[in-house]
Protein backbone atom coordinates (compact mmCIF):
# COMPACT_ATOMS: atom_id res chain seq x y z
CA UNK A 1 0.00 0.00 0.00
CA UNK A 2 1.02 3.59 -0.59
CA UNK A 3 3.42 4.82 2.08
CA UNK A 4 2.94 8.57 2.01
CA UNK A 5 -0.50 8.73 3.54
CA UNK A 6 -0.74 9.53 7.21
CA UNK A 7 -3.62 7.83 8.93
CA UNK A 8 -3.48 10.44 11.63
CA UNK A 9 -4.96 12.93 9.20
CA UNK A 10 -8.71 12.67 9.58
CA UNK A 11 -9.35 14.32 6.25
CA UNK A 12 -7.77 11.37 4.50
CA UNK A 13 -9.00 8.23 6.21
CA UNK A 14 -11.35 8.43 9.17
CA UNK A 15 -11.09 5.87 11.92
CA UNK A 16 -12.88 2.58 11.49
CA UNK A 17 -14.61 1.10 14.48
CA UNK A 18 -12.90 -2.11 15.51
CA UNK A 19 -16.08 -3.79 16.76
CA UNK A 20 -17.32 -5.00 13.40
CA UNK A 21 -19.03 -8.31 12.65
CA UNK A 22 -17.69 -10.10 9.57
CA UNK A 23 -20.45 -10.99 7.13
CA UNK A 24 -21.32 -14.53 6.14
CA UNK A 25 -23.80 -13.76 3.38
CA UNK A 26 -26.58 -16.02 2.15
CA UNK A 27 -27.29 -15.96 -1.57
CA UNK A 28 -30.22 -17.15 -3.61
CA UNK A 29 -31.21 -17.06 -7.24
CA UNK A 30 -31.78 -19.15 -10.32
CA UNK A 31 -28.04 -19.39 -11.04
CA UNK A 32 -26.94 -20.29 -7.52
CA UNK A 33 -26.26 -23.98 -8.20
CA UNK A 34 -24.48 -23.20 -11.46
CA UNK A 35 -22.38 -20.52 -9.77
CA UNK A 36 -21.42 -22.88 -6.95
CA UNK A 37 -20.17 -25.45 -9.44
CA UNK A 38 -18.24 -22.84 -11.41
CA UNK A 39 -16.73 -21.38 -8.24
CA UNK A 40 -15.42 -24.80 -7.23
CA UNK A 41 -14.22 -25.62 -10.73
CA UNK A 42 -12.25 -22.38 -11.15
CA UNK A 43 -10.88 -22.39 -7.60
CA UNK A 44 -9.59 -25.95 -8.00
CA UNK A 45 -7.33 -24.72 -10.80
CA UNK A 46 -5.39 -22.32 -8.56
CA UNK A 47 -1.85 -23.61 -8.09
CA UNK A 48 -0.11 -22.85 -4.80
CA UNK A 49 3.19 -23.88 -6.39
CA UNK A 50 2.83 -21.32 -9.19
CA UNK A 51 1.92 -18.60 -6.71
CA UNK A 52 5.04 -19.38 -4.69
CA UNK A 53 7.24 -19.44 -7.79
CA UNK A 54 6.00 -16.04 -8.95
CA UNK A 55 6.35 -14.57 -5.45
CA UNK A 56 9.96 -15.70 -5.19
CA UNK A 57 10.70 -14.13 -8.56
CA UNK A 58 9.02 -10.78 -7.89
CA UNK A 59 10.13 -10.34 -4.27
CA UNK A 60 13.47 -12.12 -4.45
CA UNK A 61 16.97 -10.59 -4.33
CA UNK A 62 17.13 -9.85 -8.07
CA UNK A 63 14.35 -7.26 -7.99
CA UNK A 64 15.87 -5.27 -5.08
CA UNK A 65 12.54 -4.07 -3.71
CA UNK A 66 11.17 -2.98 -7.12
CA UNK A 67 11.80 0.72 -6.54
CA UNK A 68 10.78 2.94 -9.46
CA UNK A 69 13.82 4.10 -11.40
CA UNK A 70 16.01 1.14 -10.46
CA UNK A 71 16.89 -1.98 -12.41
CA UNK A 72 14.96 -4.27 -10.06
CA UNK A 73 11.57 -2.97 -11.16
CA UNK A 74 12.59 -3.43 -14.80
CA UNK A 75 13.38 -7.08 -14.05
CA UNK A 76 9.94 -7.44 -12.46
CA UNK A 77 8.27 -5.68 -15.39
CA UNK A 78 9.88 -8.01 -17.92
CA UNK A 79 8.97 -11.07 -15.85
CA UNK A 80 5.31 -10.05 -15.72
CA UNK A 81 5.12 -9.26 -19.44
CA UNK A 82 6.89 -12.52 -20.31
CA UNK A 83 4.31 -14.40 -18.26
CA UNK A 84 1.45 -12.53 -19.93
CA UNK A 85 2.89 -13.48 -23.31
CA UNK A 86 3.15 -17.15 -22.29
CA UNK A 87 -0.52 -17.07 -21.29
CA UNK A 88 -1.52 -15.60 -24.64
CA UNK A 89 -2.78 -12.27 -23.33
CA UNK A 90 -3.17 -9.55 -25.95
CA UNK A 91 -2.10 -5.92 -25.83
CA UNK A 92 -4.88 -3.47 -25.03
CA UNK A 93 -5.31 -1.87 -28.44
CA UNK A 94 -8.33 0.00 -27.13
CA UNK A 95 -5.82 2.13 -25.20
CA UNK A 96 -3.61 2.60 -28.24
CA UNK A 97 -1.03 0.06 -27.06
CA UNK A 98 0.81 -2.31 -29.37
CA UNK A 99 2.65 -4.04 -26.53
CA UNK A 100 2.11 -4.69 -22.83
CA UNK A 101 3.58 -1.40 -21.57
CA UNK A 102 1.59 1.71 -20.67
CA UNK A 103 4.42 4.18 -20.09
CA UNK A 104 4.43 7.30 -17.95
CA UNK A 105 6.90 9.51 -16.09
CA UNK A 106 7.29 10.28 -12.42
CA UNK A 107 9.94 11.93 -10.23
CA UNK A 108 12.67 9.62 -8.97
CA UNK A 109 13.02 10.33 -5.28
CA UNK A 110 15.75 8.59 -3.28
CA UNK A 111 13.84 7.22 -0.33
CA UNK A 112 15.00 7.77 3.22
CA UNK A 113 12.55 6.66 5.87
CA UNK A 114 11.93 9.06 8.70
CA UNK A 115 13.24 6.42 11.10
CA UNK A 116 15.99 5.14 8.80
CA UNK A 117 14.50 1.84 7.79
CA UNK A 118 11.95 1.12 10.51
CA UNK A 119 8.90 1.93 8.37
CA UNK A 120 5.43 2.19 9.79
CA UNK A 121 2.18 1.98 7.90
CA UNK A 122 1.30 5.43 6.71
CA UNK A 123 4.58 6.99 7.84
CA UNK A 124 5.96 9.78 5.74
CA UNK A 125 9.28 9.58 3.97
CA UNK A 126 11.76 12.40 3.57
CA UNK A 127 12.12 13.23 -0.11
CA UNK A 128 15.15 14.76 -1.75
CA UNK A 129 14.10 17.30 -4.41
CA UNK A 130 15.75 18.29 -7.68
CA UNK A 131 16.13 14.77 -9.01
CA UNK A 132 15.32 13.63 -12.55
CA UNK A 133 12.05 12.33 -13.86
CA UNK A 134 12.12 8.64 -14.72
CA UNK A 135 9.99 6.50 -16.98
CA UNK A 136 8.03 3.57 -15.64
CA UNK A 137 5.24 1.39 -17.01
CA UNK A 138 2.02 -0.29 -16.10
CA UNK A 139 1.99 -3.81 -17.54
CA UNK A 140 -1.35 -4.55 -19.21
CA UNK A 141 -2.63 -7.69 -20.90
CA UNK A 142 -6.14 -8.54 -22.07
CA UNK A 143 -8.46 -11.41 -22.86
CA UNK A 144 -11.03 -10.18 -25.37
CA UNK A 145 -14.68 -10.75 -24.53
CA UNK A 146 -16.98 -12.57 -26.92
CA UNK A 147 -20.46 -11.18 -26.26
CA UNK A 148 -19.65 -7.81 -24.66
CA UNK A 149 -16.10 -7.01 -25.80
CA UNK A 150 -16.58 -3.30 -25.11
CA UNK A 151 -17.25 -3.91 -21.40
CA UNK A 152 -14.12 -4.30 -19.28
CA UNK A 153 -13.35 -6.03 -16.01
CA UNK A 154 -9.95 -4.78 -14.82
CA UNK A 155 -8.04 -6.92 -12.34
CA UNK A 156 -5.28 -4.76 -10.86
CA UNK A 157 -2.43 -4.91 -8.35
CA UNK A 158 0.73 -2.83 -8.00
CA UNK A 159 4.14 -4.34 -8.65
CA UNK A 160 6.29 -1.42 -7.49
CA UNK A 161 7.49 -1.18 -3.90
CA UNK A 162 9.88 0.79 -1.69
CA UNK A 163 13.13 -0.31 -3.31
CA UNK A 164 16.28 0.26 -1.27
CA UNK A 165 17.42 2.55 1.52
CA UNK A 166 20.78 3.66 0.15
CA UNK A 167 21.96 4.99 3.51
CA UNK A 168 21.14 1.93 5.61
CA UNK A 169 21.86 -0.49 2.75
CA UNK A 170 18.52 -2.17 3.31
CA UNK A 171 16.18 -3.70 0.74
CA UNK A 172 12.41 -3.69 1.17
CA UNK A 173 11.28 -6.80 -0.78
CA UNK A 174 7.51 -6.11 -0.71
CA UNK A 175 6.38 -9.73 -0.83
CA UNK A 176 3.03 -9.09 0.83
CA UNK A 177 2.87 -5.43 -0.32
CA UNK A 178 2.08 -6.02 -3.10
CA UNK A 179 3.85 -8.83 -4.92
CA UNK A 180 1.15 -11.04 -3.39
CA UNK A 181 -1.56 -9.15 -5.27
CA UNK A 182 0.40 -9.33 -8.52
CA UNK A 183 1.03 -13.07 -8.33
CA UNK A 184 -2.66 -13.61 -7.57
CA UNK A 185 -3.48 -11.53 -10.66
CA UNK A 186 -1.03 -13.59 -12.73
CA UNK A 187 -2.57 -16.86 -11.58
CA UNK A 188 -6.07 -15.57 -12.36
CA UNK A 189 -4.79 -14.62 -15.83
CA UNK A 190 -3.38 -18.12 -16.34
CA UNK A 191 -6.64 -19.79 -15.38
CA UNK A 192 -8.87 -17.51 -17.44
CA UNK A 193 -6.58 -17.82 -20.47
CA UNK A 194 -7.21 -21.58 -20.43
CA UNK A 195 -10.98 -21.19 -20.21
CA UNK A 196 -13.48 -20.46 -22.94
CA UNK A 197 -13.15 -16.71 -23.63
CA UNK A 198 -15.33 -14.71 -21.23
CA UNK A 199 -18.35 -12.68 -22.24
CA UNK A 200 -16.73 -9.41 -21.17
CA UNK A 201 -13.17 -8.32 -21.87
CA UNK A 202 -10.75 -8.73 -18.96
CA UNK A 203 -7.71 -6.48 -18.54
CA UNK A 204 -4.96 -7.62 -16.19
CA UNK A 205 -3.16 -4.51 -14.93
CA UNK A 206 0.10 -4.74 -12.99
CA UNK A 207 0.46 -1.11 -11.92
CA UNK A 208 3.57 0.91 -11.14
CA UNK A 209 3.88 4.14 -9.16
CA UNK A 210 1.51 3.17 -6.35
CA UNK A 211 4.04 3.86 -3.61
CA UNK A 212 4.75 7.25 -5.21
CA UNK A 213 1.14 8.39 -4.89
CA UNK A 214 -1.17 6.03 -6.81
CA UNK A 215 0.32 7.26 -10.07
CA UNK A 216 -0.10 4.06 -12.08
CA UNK A 217 -3.83 3.92 -11.44
CA UNK A 218 -4.02 7.64 -12.19
CA UNK A 219 -2.36 7.05 -15.58
CA UNK A 220 -4.62 4.12 -16.43
CA UNK A 221 -7.70 6.09 -15.36
CA UNK A 222 -6.70 9.02 -17.55
CA UNK A 223 -6.19 6.77 -20.56
CA UNK A 224 -9.52 5.02 -19.98
CA UNK A 225 -11.21 8.42 -19.92
CA UNK A 226 -9.35 9.68 -22.98
CA UNK A 227 -10.37 6.62 -25.01
CA UNK A 228 -14.00 6.72 -23.86
CA UNK A 229 -13.73 3.45 -21.95
CA UNK A 230 -14.03 4.63 -18.34
CA UNK A 231 -17.83 4.30 -18.23
CA UNK A 232 -17.57 0.76 -19.58
CA UNK A 233 -14.96 -0.44 -17.08
CA UNK A 234 -14.81 -1.51 -13.45
CA UNK A 235 -11.91 -2.58 -11.28
CA UNK A 236 -11.15 -5.33 -8.78
CA UNK A 237 -7.91 -4.27 -7.07
CA UNK A 238 -5.84 -6.81 -5.12
CA UNK A 239 -3.72 -5.77 -2.13
CA UNK A 240 -1.67 -7.59 0.52
CA UNK A 241 -3.13 -11.07 0.14
CA UNK A 242 -0.37 -12.91 2.04
CA UNK A 243 -0.95 -11.27 5.42
CA UNK A 244 0.86 -12.91 8.29
CA UNK A 245 -2.18 -12.69 10.55
CA UNK A 246 -5.87 -11.92 10.38
CA UNK A 247 -9.03 -13.78 9.54
CA UNK A 248 -11.12 -11.43 7.42
CA UNK A 249 -11.00 -10.43 3.76
CA UNK A 250 -11.88 -6.74 3.69
CA UNK A 251 -13.65 -5.35 0.62
CA UNK A 252 -13.38 -1.57 0.31
CA UNK A 253 -16.25 -0.36 -1.87
CA UNK A 254 -16.35 3.35 -0.87
CA UNK A 255 -20.13 2.99 -0.49
CA UNK A 256 -20.66 2.99 -4.26
CA UNK A 257 -23.83 1.16 -5.38
CA UNK A 258 -22.41 0.50 -8.85
CA UNK A 259 -19.83 -1.92 -7.41
CA UNK A 260 -22.29 -3.88 -5.27
CA UNK A 261 -22.28 -6.76 -7.74
CA UNK A 262 -18.46 -6.99 -7.44
CA UNK A 263 -18.78 -7.23 -3.66
CA UNK A 264 -21.60 -9.77 -4.03
CA UNK A 265 -19.53 -12.03 -6.26
CA UNK A 266 -16.54 -11.92 -3.91
CA UNK A 267 -18.81 -12.73 -0.98
CA UNK A 268 -20.47 -15.54 -2.92
CA UNK A 269 -17.11 -17.19 -3.60
CA UNK A 270 -15.82 -16.47 -0.09
CA UNK A 271 -18.89 -18.04 1.53
CA UNK A 272 -18.35 -21.24 -0.40
CA UNK A 273 -14.85 -21.59 1.08
CA UNK A 274 -15.74 -20.40 4.57
CA UNK A 275 -13.81 -17.13 4.22
CA UNK A 276 -15.13 -14.28 6.35
CA UNK A 277 -15.61 -10.97 4.55
CA UNK A 278 -15.98 -7.42 5.78
CA UNK A 279 -17.28 -4.84 3.29
CA UNK A 280 -15.96 -1.40 4.26
CA UNK A 281 -18.15 1.46 3.04
CA UNK A 282 -15.84 4.32 4.03
CA UNK A 283 -16.37 6.89 1.27
CA UNK A 284 -12.82 8.25 1.50
CA UNK A 285 -11.49 4.85 0.50
CA UNK A 286 -8.36 2.86 1.31
CA UNK A 287 -4.78 4.02 0.68
CA UNK A 288 -4.77 1.91 -2.47
CA UNK A 289 -5.31 2.17 -6.21
CA UNK A 290 -9.08 1.68 -6.07
CA UNK A 291 -9.37 5.11 -4.50
CA UNK A 292 -7.67 6.75 -7.50
CA UNK A 293 -9.88 4.82 -9.94
CA UNK A 294 -13.01 5.91 -8.08
CA UNK A 295 -11.88 9.53 -7.97
CA UNK A 296 -11.59 9.41 -11.76
CA UNK A 297 -15.02 7.87 -12.30
CA UNK A 298 -13.95 4.25 -12.80
CA UNK A 299 -15.87 2.11 -10.25
CA UNK A 300 -13.46 0.04 -8.18
CA UNK A 301 -13.07 -2.05 -5.04
CA UNK A 302 -9.99 -3.27 -3.19
CA UNK A 303 -9.79 -6.73 -1.65
CA UNK A 304 -7.19 -6.92 1.15
CA UNK A 305 -6.71 -9.01 4.27
CA UNK A 306 -7.51 -7.26 7.55
CA UNK A 307 -6.83 -3.63 6.69
CA UNK A 308 -8.63 -2.04 9.65
CA UNK A 309 -6.53 0.96 10.48
CA UNK A 310 -6.51 0.34 14.23
CA UNK A 311 -4.93 -3.10 13.73
CA UNK A 312 -2.96 -2.79 10.49
CA UNK A 313 0.52 -3.22 11.97
CA UNK A 314 -0.60 -6.16 14.07
CA UNK A 315 -2.03 -7.94 11.03
CA UNK A 316 0.79 -6.90 8.66
CA UNK A 317 3.83 -6.59 10.98
CA UNK A 318 6.39 -6.63 8.16
CA UNK A 319 4.69 -3.85 6.17
CA UNK A 320 7.20 -1.46 4.53
CA UNK A 321 10.12 -3.21 6.20
CA UNK A 322 13.08 -5.34 5.17
CA UNK A 323 11.22 -8.32 6.64
CA UNK A 324 8.44 -8.35 4.04
CA UNK A 325 10.04 -11.35 2.33
CA UNK A 326 8.65 -14.42 0.56
CA UNK A 327 9.72 -16.48 3.57
CA UNK A 328 7.44 -14.43 5.83
CA UNK A 329 4.49 -14.45 3.43
CA UNK A 330 1.52 -16.57 4.43
CA UNK A 331 1.23 -18.85 1.40
CA UNK A 332 -1.87 -20.61 2.70
CA UNK A 333 -3.65 -17.27 2.93
CA UNK A 334 -2.42 -16.23 -0.52
CA UNK A 335 -3.68 -19.52 -1.96
CA UNK A 336 -7.04 -19.13 -0.23
CA UNK A 337 -7.37 -15.51 -1.37
CA UNK A 338 -6.61 -16.36 -4.97
CA UNK A 339 -9.17 -19.16 -5.04
CA UNK A 340 -11.86 -16.72 -3.91
CA UNK A 341 -10.78 -13.90 -6.24
CA UNK A 342 -10.24 -16.13 -9.27
CA UNK A 343 -13.77 -17.48 -8.92
CA UNK A 344 -15.19 -13.98 -8.38
CA UNK A 345 -13.31 -12.65 -11.42
CA UNK A 346 -14.66 -15.46 -13.57
CA UNK A 347 -18.23 -14.74 -12.45
CA UNK A 348 -17.80 -11.01 -13.09
CA UNK A 349 -16.45 -11.59 -16.58
CA UNK A 350 -19.38 -13.84 -17.47
CA UNK A 351 -22.28 -11.92 -15.94
CA UNK A 352 -25.39 -11.61 -18.05
CA UNK A 353 -26.37 -8.16 -16.81
CA UNK A 354 -24.89 -5.21 -18.65
CA UNK A 355 -22.81 -2.75 -16.63
CA UNK A 356 -25.32 0.08 -17.14
CA UNK A 357 -28.12 -2.13 -15.79
CA UNK A 358 -26.03 -3.10 -12.77
CA UNK A 359 -25.49 0.55 -11.88
CA UNK A 360 -29.25 1.14 -12.19
CA UNK A 361 -30.37 -1.84 -10.10
CA UNK A 362 -27.77 -1.60 -7.32
CA UNK A 363 -29.59 1.02 -5.30
Secondary-structure map with pairings?
Layout (H helix, E strand, L loop, with lengths): L31 H12 L4 H11 L12 H16 L14 E7 L3 E3 L11 E3 L5 E11 L4 E11 L4 E3 L4 E3 L2 H19 L6 E8 L7 H12 L6 E7 L8 E5 L7 H13 L3 E5 L8 H7 L4 E6 L6 H4 L15 H19 L5 H7 L2
Helix pairs in contact: 1-9, 2-4, 4-9, 5-7, 6-9
Task: Describe this protein's structure.
This protein has 363 residues and is an alpha/beta fold. It has one domain: 3-Layer(aba) Sandwich (Aminopeptidase), CATH 3.40.630.10. It is built from ten helices and twelve strands. The chain has an eight-stranded mixed sheet with strand order 1-4-8-5-9-12-10-11, with helices on both faces. A two-stranded antiparallel sheet has the order 2-3.
Summarize the model shown.
This protein is of the alpha/beta class. It has helices spanning 32-43, 48-58, 71-86, 175-193, 215-226, 260-272, 289-295, 312-315, 331-349, 355-361, and strands at 101-107, 111-113, 125-127, 133-143, 148-158, 163-165, 170-172, 200-207, 233-239, 248-252, 276-280, 300-305.
Number of helices: 10
Structural class comes to: alpha/beta
The mean pLDDT is: 86
The helix fraction, in percent, is: 25-40%
DSSP summary, beta strand count: 12
Give helix and strand order, one letter per element, not per position.
HHHEEEEEEEHEHEEHEHEHHH
CATH fold field value: Aminopeptidase
Amino acid sequence: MINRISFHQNNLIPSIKPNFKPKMVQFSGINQNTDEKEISRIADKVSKEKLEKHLNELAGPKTEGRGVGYKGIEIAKRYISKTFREYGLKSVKELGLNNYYEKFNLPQYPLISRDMGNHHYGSYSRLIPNVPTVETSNVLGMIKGTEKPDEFIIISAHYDHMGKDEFKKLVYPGANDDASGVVSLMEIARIMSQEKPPKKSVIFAALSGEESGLLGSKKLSQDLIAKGIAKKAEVLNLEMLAAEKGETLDIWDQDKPEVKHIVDNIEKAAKQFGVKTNPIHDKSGPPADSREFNQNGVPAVTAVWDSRLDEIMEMHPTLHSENDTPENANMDKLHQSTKVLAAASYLLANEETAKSELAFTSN
